[in-house]
Design brief:
There is one protein chain. With about 170 residues, this protein is α/β, with parallel strands linked by helices. It has one domain. The chain contains four helices and seven strands, in the order H-E-E-H-E-E-E-H-H-E-E. Strands 1-7-6-2-3-4-5 form a seven-stranded mixed beta sheet. The longest helix is centred in the C-terminal third of the chain and has 14 residues.
Amino acid sequence: MVFKKVLSADVNFMDSLKDRLRLREVNSVDESDVIIAFVPITSRAGTDIESALKQIPQNLSRPVVLVVLHHTSDSEFVTPDSSLIVSRENVFTVDCLFHEDKGLLRCLCNDKALKAVTDHLNSPEIFKRTSDQAEVGVKSIFLDEDIRGGRYGSKIISRYFMVFSR
């Protein structure tokens, strides 16, 4: 099932990362070294982020990149810093803007988020975890956990599994 309300904002984000990090598909989370999770804000950021993080097991030894998708038509919208909400270890958080009719917006906020994720995945911290490997596995998932029944529904969607080469 495709989460149509975000018009493939997650796919656009991963495609942009693919251009920067040379991604290719793998088959499972067990093969991954990094999880990239996409969370649309459907009501309140804190509640939605907390619900999404509950879906990612805490006992994973791999880092998580949490891409928080804020719905707006304003490409200059200033988002709250979602990383201030996330206290869980090994979770790197960025904020992005999307519109349900336009998908991922072309804007400075999204450019900064892509650069931040690229820099993070190329950082010594991530690199030392995977330095004995030629490739680093990335599993990309889409999380939508709105148990209050918001406009986007309640489901988890696994879109694809990715690996990038250094």
